[in-house]
Structure formats: C-alpha cells, structure tokens
Design a protein that fits this description.
This protein has about 250 residues and is α+β, with helices and mostly antiparallel strands. It contains nine helices and seven strands; from the N terminus they run βααββααβααβββααα. The strands form two sheets. Strands 4-7-6-5 form a four-stranded antiparallel sheet. Strands 1-3-2 form a three-stranded antiparallel sheet. Strand 5 and strand 6 (about 145-155) form a beta hairpin.
C-alpha cells in the first residue's frame, strides 16, 4: 500500500529544505496532494522521481533536473555574509529568494517585512539577471543601497544568482536620505522614524572593499556550481543503479 508523506518527512527523505519542496511543486517536478492546508506526497511517486523512471521524462542523453543543495548553500552563505559584513542571499533567475537572507541590516529588514517592499526588492534582484557583465557589478537597488550578483550556471544555463549588498559606497546627503526615507515609508507604509533611525546604521565601504566583496561573491557562486554539479552527478549514478536493479529483478 502506498504511503503519504508529510512535507517534513519528504524533506528528511530527499535531504532538502522546505523551499526546495515548494519550488518543485510549483514547477511540476513533484506531484503532491492538498489535504486542507497541508501537502501530502506519495512515497511511490517520490521513489520513482528519484530513480528516474517517471514517464515522458527519461531519455538516454538527457541531463537530470538540477536542484542546488540549499541545505548546504545556506550555511556557507551565512558565513560569507558575516565575514564580508554584507547582506547576502541566493535567488532564482527571476529574483525569487531560494535561501533566507543572511546578515540583513535593520533598514532592509523593515522594507522586506512589507509585502510591497519585498516585491520591490525581488524586482531589483530580477534586474541583476539582465546585466551584461560576467563578473559581479554593483548597482543601486530600489532603496538606494548597493547590490551585485554572481551567476550560478549549470550546463551553460543560468540556474540561480548569488547576491550580496546592503551598503553605500558614497553616503547620500542628508537631503537625499530624507527624501528617500519619506518616499519608501509612504510607498510601503512603513514607520518613517524607525526607517530613519535604521538608515543611520547602513555601512559605507570603500571601492577597494567593494572590489573584494565582488571577488568573494564570484568564488562563492563557483562553489555553489560545484555543489550543483556533484548533486547532478550523484542523481545520475542513482538512476543508473535503479535501472540496473530493475533489469536484474
């Protein structure tokens, strides 16, 4: 008899986080059953997904679906953000966060706590996808802070982006800062005084440090690519083992 797994059980089974489960649900890679407000998953369907015997997707020369190991990426991202003293996250190419924000400043936390503010942040991250530069290049986000991305590519395709930022290179004048705070507070229905106070904590770094952060970010992205390739290779081997087992059973 087939067994239904809870989201938590499936996380433990696949060794991935909840965000990955929901992303696989959304893009159709993972079949699920809605029971009230909870999701349930067929153990047999999940086993078929892992072994690669699901219909219409298995081809002799196709690459297995790649999924970055977010449970490994998150702690490395956390350490990078702490050392570099910047905010950092990993997003999909459309700007949707795949990890939790690391070392986020109070100013950005207030904006992200607003639904419209979060949408504006995601839009800023999405724009980084269209940058022509291969290496990280810092630009202003919608809130006036500096951000850059490093591309995470798998098989020549953009899989995700490693992003770092939440600082100034040149601190705005008092007039510029006040105009920006009033605009953001009105647009996202935020407490103007709280936003003004947290804005004083936004760090200012010089161009040398900015260059170093960009270099570190590039290395982090390459590390994430290595993790992704290893996972793809592992899934490919498991599929071959499963196919051989079926032949000899």
């Amino acid at each position: 008899m087939d067994t239904l797994l809870t989201t938590r059980q499936l996380q433990d089974y696949l060794k991935v986080d909840r965000t990955t489960i929901y992303r696989m649900l959304k893009d159709g890679r993972l079949p699920g059953i809605r029971v009230g407000n909870q999701w349930r998953f067929s153990r047999e369907s999940v086993a078929s997904l892992i072994s690669g015997i699901e219909p219409e997707e298995e081809t002799s020369d196709s690459q297995p679906p790649s999924s970055l190991p977010l449970d490994c990426i998150q702690p490395i991202q956390d350490v990078f953000a702490d050392i570099a003293q910047v905010g950092s996250l990993t997003t999909a190419p459309d700007g949707t966060p795949l990890t939790n924000m690391s070392n986020t400043c109070r100013f950005c936390s207030q904006i992200l706590a607003s639904e419209s503010g979060r949408r504006a942040c995601i839009q800023s991250w999405r724009k980084l996808t269209s940058q022509s530069e291969t290496r990280p290049h810092f630009v202003e986000c919608h809130a006036g802070l500096m951000y850059a991305r490093a591309r995470i590519e798998m098989g020549g395709k953009l899989e995700a982006m490693a992003i770092a930022g939440q600082f100034y290179v040149d601190r705005p004048t008092e007039e510029q800062q006040e105009e920006r705070i009033q605009r953001l507070a009105t647009l996202h229905q935020l407490d103007e005084n709280a936003l003004r106070e947290s804005a004083r904590e936004i760090p200012v770094i010089d161009h040398r440090m900015e260059s170093l952060i960009g270099s570190w970010l590039q290395k982090i992205a390459h590390t994430f690519e290595h993790f992704g390739r290893e996972r793809i290779d592992l899934i490919g081997r498991l599929r071959k083992i499963a196919a051989m087992t079926d032949v000899h059973s």
